[in-house]
């Protein structure tokens, strides 16, 4: 069977915000895929197993098996999907607008999420709630300021883009760590509008194959 | 004067690894620019000043004023330069190879550097050396494994790419935090080859306008 006929496989964890990003893109582009749950908590983290290392040497989710290769890192995966399955577009065609989308995305992907991910909070220990709140609030201050320059209905104008794909899972994390979102009215407004869209709903952590019954929507 | 005739201005700090990435790309593409130093240590961090916030609402370096806009986030800046000044290319044309380049870049940009940057280490306090070593070593283990699949002379094959641009400043940080690099022979070899190239030399932290005399090469 040729690589293009094989359904992609997403290695994912229901609550991983980076996994959710990729699920949104797959849903937006209507790409059918199978999902393989990797539990980041059970057995000391199944992503660290020898079995999973053979799939993804980076030992992280998400990983996407597609077109005969296995990709990791959510931004790399999403941009690969954008370049090989461009409809509908999640990056604008104008280079300056693309840069705006990437600025917002990268600020979340590099500037916020890594500082509040599971393994870092485990290392931080008892002060983890305060630590997560600090980095999410601090990061959202900058995101709110830039959105005031770029936003329409969504993060950059009126088209859904990768910036939106990164924003919604980060707001989900913010709520999980009880961050006060009142100072970020633009983020609140855009997040609400995005959660109306089907691609953001079907990919939601509350609706995945590995979502525990008590967290199901 | 039209935007394209105005020399770009890079807001940069000599020792910021994210700033160095952008300086490498500007040098590789032979783009003339002016540099405005922003001292991340002096005055409690000049990037936090109201004056600099007016330049870059994200209050971070690097920021690049170019073509009438100000961009921030190193990956967003570098990809903007790649899309508007494609010669020489720093992303391969094949989508799978581009994904490899982005996987390595993003692993450094999102998975390593944010966890050992100045503001995080200040928050970590007295255990900062051990903390930085932990995250750099852990990240380099994954980078070394993936490089064993992708590398030629450089990170992905024999062409310099954004992955190389991200790698060299991260190795510089590793050395600064006295990380034992022995377990990463591929990283060592590629870093050495890259440091032979002029674009990596002229952009080096030891040769910037704001490099203190005692750290000059």
From TrEMBL, chains A, B:
Pathway(s) the chain acts in: Amino-acid degradation; L-phenylalanine degradation; acetoacetate and fumarate from L-phenylalanine: step 5/6
Keywords: Cytoplasm, Isomerase, Phenylalanine catabolism, Transferase, Tyrosine catabolism
Cofactor(s) this protein cannot do without: glutathione
Reactions catalysed according to its record: 4-maleylacetoacetate = 4-fumarylacetoacetate; RX + glutathione = an S-substituted glutathione + a halide anion + H(+)
Xref: InterPro entries: Glutathione-S-Trfase_C-like, Glutathione-S-Trfase_C_sf, Glutathione_S-Trfase, Glutathione_S-Trfase_N, GST_C, GST_Zeta, GST_Zeta_C, GST_Zeta_N
UniProt GO molecular function: glutathione transferase activity; maleylacetoacetate isomerase activity
GO annotation terms (biological process): glutathione metabolic process; L-phenylalanine catabolic process; L-tyrosine catabolic process
Main location: cytoplasm
Subcellular location(s) of the protein: Cytoplasm
UniProt xrefs under NCBIfam families: maiA
Protein name: Maleylacetoacetate isomerase
Segments passing through the bilayer: none
Domain GST C-terminal stretches: 94-213
Family: Belongs to the GST superfamily. Zeta family.
Gene3D superfamilies attached to this UniProt entry: 1.20.1050.10, Glutaredoxin
